[in-house]
Design brief:
By secondary structure, this protein is an alpha/beta fold. The protein is built from 6 helices and 9 strands. β1 and β2 form a beta hairpin.
C-alpha cells in the first residue's frame, strides 16, 4: 500500500526475521541485520520465535525434516494475521534452518516478490528456489558442504559470499577478524536493500554476474 500526495510516496515495507534453532534474533547477524534494515525503511518487523527440543539434528535427515515441520508450523502460526497485499516491499532475513522456513513460506504463500537475506543457508533451502536473494556461508560450517552451497547458489543465480575459516555463526577464532567480517556482511546486506540493487541487481556487491565471492 502506498500513501502520500503529489510526488510524495511512502512505500509500505516489512521485514520478517527467521532465526535458527540455537541462533535467536538478538545474536549478531540477525540483530545487526535488523538494525540495517530499519535504517533502510523496514521499521515494521516481526521476529519469529520458535522452539524445538529434539536434541542434535545435524546429519539426521529424519530429525531434520521433523524439526522443519515443527518450526514451519510455529512460524506459520505467528504470521497467520499477516495481510501481505498491504505491503509493497517484503524482506525475509533468515539464519540456518530459518532459511528453509523463509524460502518455503514465501513459496507456499506465493510471495515471489519478497527479498531474502540468507545467512548460512542449508542445502534444503534451495529446494524452494528463493528469488531476489543473497547468501553468506563459511568454509568451516559443520552444517553444510560449502562447495555444494556455492554450487546451489550459483545454479539459482543467488550471489554468495564465502568467509574462509568461519563456522555456522560466520565466526572464527580471531575476534577482530569476526568484527571485520561482520562489517563486510552488513555492508553487503545494506547494499542489497538499496533502491539501486532492487529486483536482483547486485552489481555493486559482486560485479556484472552473480558468482561466489571469497573473503
Amino acid at each position: 500500500m502506498k500513501a502520500g500526495t503529489g510526488k510524495e510516496t511512502i512505500m509500505a515495507k516489512i521485514a520478517v526475521y527467521f532465526p535458527g534453532i540455537g541462533y535467536h534474533c538478538d545474536k549478531p547477524l540477525l540483530y545487526y541485520g535488523r538494525k540495517i534494515a530499519c535504517e533502510q525503511g523496514y521499521q515494521e518487523y516481526r521476529n519469529i520465535s520458535y522452539t524445538y527440543q529434539a536434541g542434535n539434528i545435524r546429519g539426521d535427515e529424519e530429525k531434520m525434516n521433523e524439526a522443519y515441520e515443527a518450526l514451519f508450523a510455529q512460524a506459520e502460526a505467528e504470521l497467520a494475521d499477516m495481510v501481505w497485499s498491504d505491503y509493497d516491499d517484503v524482506l525475509f532475513v533468515s539464519k540456518s534452518i530459518g532459511t528453509i522456513i523463509a524460502a518455503s513460506y514465501a513459496k507456499k504463500y506465493e510471495l515471489g516478490r519478497a527479498r531474502h537475506i540468507l545467512y548460512t543457508p542449508l542445502a534444503q533451502t534451495f529446494l524452494f528456489a528463493p528469488d531476489h536473494a543473497i547468501a553468506f556461508i563459511g568454509t568451516a560450517d559443520p552444517w553444510s558442504d560449502t562447495e555444494e552451497i556455492v554450487r546451489l547458489s550459483e545454479k539459482n543465480h543467488i550471489p554468495i559470499t564465502v568467509y574462509e575459516g568461519c563456522n555456522h555463526s560466520l565466526e572464527c577464532a580471531d575476534t577482530l577478524k569476526n568484527i571485520e567480517n561482520l562489517k563486510d556482511i552488513m555492508q553487503r546486506t545494506v547494499y542489497s536493500l538499496t533502491e539501486e540493487d532492487h529486483h536482483g541487481n547486485f552489481s555493486r556487491l559482486y560485479g556484472a554476474a552473480p558468482a561466489a565471492h571469497h573473503t
